Amino acid sequence: MRRLRTLPWLALLGVLRVAAGDASLDDSTAVTESATPAYAIDDAAYGSDGLERYIDESYYELQSFWSNYCAQGCDPSYVGDGECDETCNNEECDWDENDCFHGYGECYTLSDGSDYRGEVSTTEDGVTCQYWSRLWPHTHDKTVYNYPKAGLGGHNFCRNPDGEAKPWCSSSSSCSAAGPRLTEGRLLS
């Protein structure tokens, strides 16, 4: 079974041609990456052999291509503006051009762990932490908007945005990030 993808501008051409009724559904075994039927467009303008163009792009991906958005909801003016914008805090946007914390080790130097920027995302009991950007299953006000310097965002890593005794995450148990500390240049457990 073939898995195919196309560039956004090719998908846009395909969408326009499908809308104009100038395309046929390919009933071969080809499917798109999302396992939906692929539409084939034969167009002599793209080669005398009638190349097939497959469409598997969402509206957002097309919008991203034309608008230079690095992620859904991340306006290009937000990237590198000195604030950690939750929608831009991802690899595609280079962690909001380093406005957001990323790549820090599992150590922290402040006694309450408020400077912890590691990637522990489970509690001491092994429960997976809730993403800071989600308000379910537990509601909270600990968002990147309310605590812009706390290292929060579109992840579920333990943090201490509000001055608790140690890093934590939204769950019924305390976080396992309490152990490591940087003391005299070495990691202690």
Strand order of the largest sheet: 2-4-5
Q: Taking Cα atoms only, what radius of gyration do you get, to the nearest Å?
A: 23 Å
What is the CATH C level class of the largest domain, in words? Answer: Mainly Beta
Morphology call: globular
Please estimate the helix content: 10-25%
Question: How many β-strands, per DSSP?
Answer: 7
Low-confidence blocks of residues = 1-33, 36-60, 179-189
Distance between the termini: 49 Å
Largest beta-sheet details: 3 strands, antiparallel
Overall pLDDT level = 65
Beta content: 5-15%
Domain Kringle: 106-182
Organism: Emiliania huxleyi (strain CCMP1516)
Pfam family, one: Kringle
InterPro entries: Kringle, Kringle-like, Kringle_CS, Kringle_sf, Notch_dom, Serine_protease_kringle
